[in-house]
Amino acid sequence: QQIEAWLQCHGAPGSARGAATQTRSPASLREHRTALLAQTHEVIEQQIVELLSRIFEAVLSDTQLPAAARAVTARLQVSALRVALIDRAMLNGAPHPVWTLMNRIASAFLVWPQAGDVRSGRLLEFCETLAHDIASAPMQSASLYAMGLDRLEAHLTEELQRQRIELSQVSSLA
Fold first, then answer.
1. How much is the pTM?
2. How many Å from the N-terminal Cα to the C-terminal Cα in the chain?
């Protein structure tokens, strides 16, 4: 509760103040770790803040991930923290919608499409919108991420269908 109050006061996504500051780049949990830890005396909540800030720090500094994937992931940090604080199953190591969506976003940027491809721009735009929608939702939950994963899969399927149509048109001309 205290962490959520702090997030609301400091313009985290999903709060009225957060909506007004959406043009800024998202602050990392690492930058606010000390303040977040000071907001609770619950050991489990402190451990969750520590764990997630370290996970995101590692992901966001991974140069093997394209910058676009890191930027989208950065926008989901506070949302993921909110989910972890209410849904401890997220930390079990079993597949969880938060991690599944983030992994799918990263894999889409890693393997498909290539830089300079118009689909790359569409993928980035779609993922930025998706991250914004999730981060600004009034209630954070695993089901929000599951719906986001469904939306991403539908987008990727649509892009593949578009590519097949384009390839069939090119091969019919040959």
1. 0.81
2. 64
